[in-house]
Design a protein that fits this description.
Length: 336
């Protein structure tokens, strides 16, 4: 739904209809300067409200800015009501004063009516566009989720068969090696978590932390001791809900491009939750070729950015930094 159509309708249909059907068309000949000021102000109101995006300001709880904007618009409209209009000249002076007063009262009413209608139209357009945009984003997310489900369903024979097979294999592993047992359990937990959360919109943060821990533990087994991993997490409320596996993309990227089985390197992963503000950061040396790294990494990160924009509009900051053969991702997320 293109915003240009709304703009054209406002400029070519809404405002001309407001002028013709209202009192404003009488001002063209008698008060041309006042007519230009009032109509120009109506156009300014529309484009200012469109530019500032009121729905996003409400979602971001920028109530101070909204109050300042409302007071400013109302104040300017009040000033227009005090514009010095020419007196009506009748033969009888008392009638002239009475007619002038009545005319000024009607002009003030017309000003406030035009102001109210323009603000109402502008806000309606803003909310309709925001709602339509959110519906498109939601539909895209649902399409991606359906694709993910389809991929899982294609890859699986049957969840019951798979888990029963895992249990059978685990019984064979028991007693052979404590390290093998632990790795097997972590791998099974990762698979179960993936199957369970695919249909969930949100999961407890403590479950996501456990999932990341298992993922890191399995990666450390594969990488031996060449890649050192520092996993620091401090969560004051593990039951708070977040979208599932939204942090894993950054962890996977850190291992994909910053891990090595032959060169010493370090991966840093940090997570904290304080006052419902989640902060997550990954740092890793770039162990892959720089051209390969720069062509592949943005795909997963940009997909995450789109998902965050849909789920947490104006309530997240996602930044990446690539310098001195080191790549850093930082996410700050305001949770409800």
């Amino acid at each position: 739904m293109s915003g240009e159509y709304f703009d054209l309708f406002f400029c070519m249909v809404f405002m001309p209809a407001l002028i013709v059907l209202g009192r404003a068309h009488y001002w063209i000949k008698t008060m041309p300067v006042f007519f230009i000021l009032e109509c120009g102000y109506c156009y300014i109101i529309y484009f200012v409200l469109k530019l500032l995006s009121i729905p996003n300001m409400l979602l971001s709880r920028e109530y101070g800015k909204l109050a300042l904007l409302g007071v400013s618009l109302i104040s300017v409209n009040c000033l227009l009501t005090f514009y010095p209009l020419p007196d009506i000249d009748f033969v009888t002076k008392s009638l002239s004063a009475l007619q002038t007063k009545a005319r000024n009262y009607n002009v003030s009413l017309s000003l406030w009516l035009m102001f109210s209608l323009v603000v109402a139209y502008s806000l309606t357009v803003s909310f309709v566009k925001e709602l339509y945009g959110q519906l498109l984003i939601k539909k895209e997310i649902e399409n991606q989720r359906d694709k993910a489900k389809l991929a899982v369903f294609k890859a699986q024979i049957s969840p019951h068969f798979m888990f029963n097979t895992l249990n059978s294999l685990y019984s064979l592993v028991i007693g052979t090696s404590r390290k093998a047992e632990d790795a097997f359990i972590k791998f099974a937990d990762i698979l179960k978590y993936t199957y369970i959360t695919i249909d969930n919109d949100c999961v407890a943060l403590k479950d996501e932390v456990s999932y990341i821990q298992n993922y890191i533990d399995l990666q450390e087994i594969r990488l031996n001791s060449c890649t050192k991993v520092r996993w620091i997490h401090e969560v004051e409320d593990g039951d708070i809900k977040i979208p599932p596996m939204i942090l894993l993309t950054f962890v996977e990227n850190a291992f994909k491009y910053g891990a090595s089985t032959s060169h010493d390197c370090e991966i840093l992963i940090m997570l904290s939750l304080r006052n419902k503000t989640l902060e997550f950061e990954t740092r890793n040396q770039i162990m892959k070729h720089s051209s390969e790294f720069r062509t592949e990494v943005p795909v997963g990160i940009e997909n995450c950015r789109a998902r965050l924009e849909a789920l947490f509009p104006k309530r997240y900051i996602l930044e990446t930094e690539d310098c001195d053969e080191c790549f850093k991702v930082s996410l700050k997320l305001q949770l409800n």
